[in-house]
Structure formats: C-alpha cells, structure tokens
Amino acid sequence: MSKLPEKIRKKLREEAFSWDASIAHEKSERVEELLGKAKPFDTTRPARQPVSLRIDPFDLSMLKRIARRKGIPFNQLMSMWLHEKIEEEKAEASP
Fold it and tell me: pLDDT tens digit string along 14-68?
C-alpha cells in the first residue's frame, strides 16, 4: 500500500507514461540532457497524528537513553521502530 493518495499516484503514473512516450524516439544523449534539466517534484505527506501512550517508566528511560546515544529524539525513535515493525508485519501477511 502506497502512502501517497490515489489522486497523486494516478497523476504520477500518467506523467511517467507521458515521459516514456515523449522520449521513446530521442537519442540517449538527448534523454540524459532532458533528465539533467528536470526538476524534482515535491509532494506533501499527510500531517502526523499525535498519540497518547502509557509506557512503563523503565522502558521509557531506556528508550530515551538509546535515542540519546543515536542522537535523535526519543519520539522519533519510537516512530521509526513502530514503522519498521508495521512493515515487517505487512511483509509477513503478504503472500
């Protein structure tokens, strides 16, 4: 499942087909020149939602210690770990 909304994915797919059609007859040097001039697109992600969570004080202390060692905020570390676990579960659930 993509994180991009369907509307944006559809627009990007159409743009990709358009690019493929427009450069199909170009020489490779010209294609590289065009790609060099291309600007990257920006897309906005949905805002993050705050979540309230009760955590054991010892676990929170350890989490903060690990995050400090890694040089990132503890809530960002929690978010990263949660995301990794979700991706693992998705991969296991997919045949």
Answer: 988 887 887 777 788 887 887 888 888 777 878 889 999 999 999 999 999 999 9
Tell me: the pLDDT tens digits for 61-93? Answer: 999 999 999 999 999 999 999 999 999 999 898
Domain shared by 32 and 72, yes or no: no
Amino acid (1-letter code) at residue 52? S
Note whether 38 and 52 are same-domain residues: no
Q: Is residue 15 located within the same domain as residue 38? A: yes
pTM metric for this prediction: 0.52
Provide the domain limits for residue 62.
48-95
